[in-house]
Design a protein that fits this description.
Its main location: endoplasmic reticulum. Interacts with ATP2A2. With 271 residues, this protein is of the alpha/beta class. Among the domains are: 116 residues, Glutaredoxin (3-Layer(aba) Sandwich), CATH 3.40.30; 69 residues. Helix content is 59%, strand content 10%. The protein has eight helices and five strands, in the order αββααβαββαααα. It has a five-stranded mixed beta sheet. A hairpin with a 2-residue loop joins β4 and β5. α2 crosses α5. The longest helix is centred in the C-terminal third of the chain and has 34 residues.
């Protein structure tokens, strides 16, 4: 009986230890966003960009969490960025595919392109494989001024998109509830309005572009011909007229030569 109790207690201790280890492993994964992303500029980091709806990101999640449990042994930090919550960071890092992983060492960024499993992540750090990867150039660095401007454009586009969705939803509800329009009628109005607004904006932007190009690259003005150019043209005309006169004279000489009487010499009588 005592041995059975000790066995049960030992199993409970093992389960509790495993549970604590799992909690500790998960706690090593840091969530980064627009407010604290600059933490990765100090020290060595491995950062994953993901989206909750991304199937590949979901498949990678367990391996990434296991890898984060090795962060203390590897003397690094492991983080994640949700691009749906931080669109500015996706623009700052020029994330075009998900998931995207970056290795960061004291503000120097490299994109990880290896296998996506725990062992590959660990060997990438332990064996310093990141040294064979070219760092992102300074002008494209996420910490540069120009990429900060790009991040603001991404955030602005997300705000405009959210505003558009909210406005469309409110107008759609009002058209259906207050005016009794069917669903297809509301969508038809939105489609026509989108086409008209798009055409007007396209016309406006084209005019602005043309004016801007003309401002920086003005068209060449059609200036009247100069006096020297006029004089040269007159000389060319005179030369052409002289050639015509010479040709006519040659024709006249030939005609006169043909029309002149030919003197025939009489044959001498034989002695």
């Amino acid at each position: 009986m005592a041995s059975f109790m000790w066995c049960c207690l030992f199993k409970v201790l093992i389960l509790v230890s495993y549970f604590l280890i799992c909690i500790e492993s998960k706690s090593q994964l840091m969530s980064l966003n627009e407010d604290n992303w600059d933490l990765m500029l100090n020290g060595e980091w491995m950062v994953e960009f993901y989206a909750p709806w991304c199937p590949a990101c979901k498949a990678l999640q367990s391996s990434w969490e296991e890898f984060s449990g090795w962060s203390k042994d590897l003397n690094i930090k492991v983080g994640q960025v949700d691009v749906t919550a931080s669109p500015g960071l996706s623009g700052r890092f020029m994330v075009t595919a998900l998931p995207t992983i970056f290795h960061v060492l004291n503000g120097e960024f490299r994109q990880y392109r290896g296998a996506r499993d725990k062992e590959s992540f660990i060997s990438f750090i332990e064996e310093d494989k990141w040294k064979s990867v070219d760092a992102i150039p300074g002008w494209k660095s996420p910490a540069s001024f120009q990429m900060s401007v790009v991040s603001y454009f991404f955030k602005m586009s997300q705000l405009l998109r959210d505003l558009q969705i909210a406005t469309k939803k409110a107008v759609h509800t009002r058209l259906m509830e207050d005016y009794g329009l069917p669903t297809w009628g509301s969508y038809l109005i939105f489609a026509v309005a989108t086409i008209i607004v798009g055409a007007l904006l396209g016309l406006l932007f084209s005019q602005v572009a043309v004016c801007t190009i003309d401002l920086f690259f003005p068209p060449k003005s059609m200036s009247p011909p100069s006096v020297k150019q006029k004089h040269k043209e007159k000389e060319i005309e005179l030369e052409e007229s002289d050639d015509d006169v010479v040709v006519e004279d040659d024709i006249v000489d030939e005609n006169t030569a043909d029309s002149s009487p030919v003197r025939k010499r009489k044959a001498r009588k034989a002695d």
